[in-house]
Write a structure and sequence with these properties.
alpha/beta, seven-stranded mixed sheet
């Protein structure tokens, strides 16, 4: 069984519904999926091709990742014809918060988190190139804000959401329900969310950061063990060519 098939294993599938899990980073493609929990657009496309018309139970515990991959997955889920029930099992941060907004029903427990912020990128270049990059990021921000706006409660000021996005805001389920069309679920024993993304944010809650270092070491070992032979061979070739990844 290849890596793509492993990622696409369907849990609790019936004739009427199926479960979909976002329990890792959101990445652009198979090469970027270093663990079986990472998701990417092609994997979701293949998953949905086998679930036409079914209701989806979507579970999220992700620090986010690629903005383009997140937007692509959001749009694919929005086009899906079955009812989509999203449950945030721990955290839906950054791009994962965008994916959460694809739900017809969104449930965030009192002790789970929704994080919204502006798009960002690591880049190099001259003054003109950096200005162009900044303009591009601002257009991305507007696209993401449009998704959040579609899910606002009546009477919520859009400028309040913009300020929250600008500040990198972490909302508990109860706080998110004050702004978005989400239901607040009862507190749960949240599953640890192990994500490279969570180490890069400015205001990650301490209850999340407290477990990152310890769990990250374990996840690195599991990720290395889960690489299939094809990816191992690709990695060897890159190392021999003197390339960095």
């Amino acid at each position: 069984m290849d890596q793509l098939q492993k990622i696409l294993q369907v849990k609790n599938q019936t004739t009427n519904s199926a479960d979909l899990y976002f329990y890792g980073d959101i990445v652009s493609d198979w090469w970027g999926a270093w663990t079986e929990s990472d998701q990417y657009p092609e994997a979701i496309k293949n998953f949905l091709n086998g679930q036409e018309g079914k209701d989806l139970n979507i579970y999220i515990n992700s620090g986010g990742g690629s903005v383009f991959a997140s937007l692509a997955i959001y749009n694919m889920l929005k086009r899906h014809t079955g009812k989509k029930t999203v449950t945030v099992d721990g955290v839906a941060a950054s791009g994962a918060s965008v994916i959460a907004m694809a739900g017809d029903e969104i449930i965030i427990p009192e002790n789970a988190f929704l994080m919204i912020h502006r798009a960002w990128v690591d880049t190099t270049g001259n003054a003109e190139e950096l200005r162009a990059c900044a303009d591009y990021l601002e257009r991305l921000d507007e696209g993401i804000l449009a998704i959040y706006k579609d899910n606002l409660l009546d009477g919520v000021n859009e400028e309040d959401i913009r300020r929250m996005v600008n500040a990198e805001t972490w909302l508990t389920g109860a706080e998110a329900a004050q702004y978005f069309r989400v239901s607040t679920g009862k507190p749960i024993n949240a599953v640890s969310c192990i994500s490279e993304q969570l180490t890069q944010y400015k205001h990650t809650p301490p209850q999340i950061t407290a477990t990152i270092s310890k769990e990250h070491q374990s996840t690195e070992i599991k990720a290395n063990d889960s690489l299939d032979e094809q990816k191992r061979e690709q990695l060897k070739r890159l190392v021999l060519q003197g390339l960095t990844i």
